[in-house]
Design brief:
The structure holds two protein chains of two kinds. Chain A is α+β, with helices and mostly antiparallel strands. Chain A is built from three helices and nine strands. In chain A, the strands form two sheets. In chain A, strands 1, 3, 5, 6, 8 and 9 form a six-stranded mixed sheet that branches. A three-stranded antiparallel sheet of chain A has the order 2-4-7, with no helix packed on it. In chain A, β5 (90-97) and β6 form a beta hairpin. The longest helix of chain A is centred in the first third of the chain and has 22 residues, at 2-23. Chain B is mainly beta. Helix content of chain B is 0%, strand content 50%. In chain B, β1 and β2 (15-21) form a beta hairpin. Classes of the chains: A alpha+beta, B mainly beta. Chain B: It comes from Dechloromonas agitata. Chain B: Pfam families: SoxZ (PF08770). Chain B: Residues 8-99 form the Sulphur oxidation protein SoxZ domain.
C-alpha cells in the first residue's frame, strides 16, 4: 500500500513538473506558433470597423511607408502591391482595401532578421483606396494611402 | 492533400529576397457555381516563415488575397546552408509545411 502511494506521489509530481513547460509554450510544436487568426478584424465589413478591431484608429499619416502599386489595374483579381516601411522598429504591416467587402486583406508581423517589406497580390472589388497600417515596437500606428483604379472587379475571381 | 509550397531565396549581398508561393484556391465565399449555389469560403488564414526553425514572419490573411498567393519578403544576413520553412493553415483546418536549404 505504501509502495503504491509512493508511486502515485512520484507520478503526480512529474506531471506537475511538466505542466508549466506546456503552458510556457516550450513544448508546443512549431506548427501552432502562429498567432490566432484575428476574426473580428478580418470579418469586419467596413473600413472603420476593421480599423477599430485591428486597434489602429489613431494612426498618424507617414511618408516613410512606401506603397508601390499600379495606378490602374485591369484585373481586380490580381493586383500586385509592394510595401516598404522605413520607420525604425516596425513590427507589423497591415493592408486594407477600403471598399472591399471585408477591408482587411493581410496582417503580417516581422521579427528578427526580417525586414518590414512585403509584396503580395490582392483581389479588389472596385476602384478603391489602399491603406497600409504599420505598427511599431512602442505601440504606435502609422498609416499611408494609395488610390487604385480597377476596371474589372475581382470579387468573382 | 494540399499542393507543395514553393520557396525561393535569392541572396543579394546583405539582403535576401524570399519568395513564397502557396498553392491554394483562396475561395472568397462570394462566388457562385453554375447552379447558383454559393461556393463556401476556403482560404489560408495564417502562415509562418521560419529561419533555422525560428519564426521570423507571421502572417494572417483574408479571402481578398489572390488565388495561389505569391509573397515576397526580405531578410538580412541569410547565408547559404540556412533552412527556410513555411507553414500555412486554412479555414478548413488543412495545413501544409515545406522547407528548403538556402543555396
Amino acid at each position: 500500500m505504501l509502495e503504491l502511494r509512493r508511486r502515485l506521489l512520484k507520478g503526480g509530481l512529474s506531471a506537475a513538473a511538466i505542466t508549466p513547460w506546456l503552458g510556457g509554450g516550450l513544448l508546443v510544436p512549431t506548427t501552432v506558433l502562429a498567432a490566432e487568426w484575428q476574426k473580428p478584424a478580418f470579418a469586419a465589413r467596413t473600413i472603420n470597423d476593421a480599423l477599430k478591431a485591428y486597434g489602429s484608429t489613431s494612426a498618424a499619416e507617414s511618408r516613410d511607408i512606401v506603397i508601390s502599386a499600379p495606378e490602374i489595374a485591369e484585373n481586380g483579381a490580381k493586383v500586385e502591391v509592394e510595401v516598404r516601411c522605413n520607420i525604425p522598429n516596425t513590427r507589423s504591416l497591415a493592408i486594407f482595401a477600403d471598399k472591399n467587402p471585408m477591408p482587411l486583406c493581410s496582417a503580417i508581423e516581422f521579427s528578427g532578421p526580417a525586414l518590414p517589406y512585403v509584396r503580395e497580390q490582392l483581389k479588389l472589388s472596385e476602384t478603391t483606396r489602399i491603406r497600409v497600417v504599420a505598427k511599431t515596437g512602442d505601440g504606435k500606428s502609422h498609416v499611408a494611402f494609395r488610390e487604385i483604379k480597377v476596371t474589372l472587379g475581382g470579387c468573382g475571381g | 492533400m494540399a499542393d507543395p509550397i514553393k520557396i525561393r531565396a535569392q541572396i543579394q549581398g546583405d539582403v535576401t529576397d524570399i519568395r513564397v508561393l502557396m498553392q491554394h484556391p483562396m475561395e472568397t465565399g462570394q462566388r457562385k457555381d453554375d447552379k447558383g449555389q454559393t461556393l463556401p469560403a476556403h482560404f489560408i488564414q495564417t502562415f509562418t516563415v521560419s529561419l533555422n526553425g525560428k519564426p521570423i514572419i507571421d502572417g494572417q490573411l483574408n479571402t481578398s488575397i489572390s488565388r495561389n498567393p505569391l509573397f515576397t519578403f526580405q531578410a538580412r544576413g541569410i547565408k547559404a546552408g540556412d533552412r527556410l520553412s513555411v507553414t500555412w493553415t486554412d479555414n478548413a483546418g488543412e495545413t501544409r509545411q515545406d522547407d528548403i536549404t538556402v543555396a
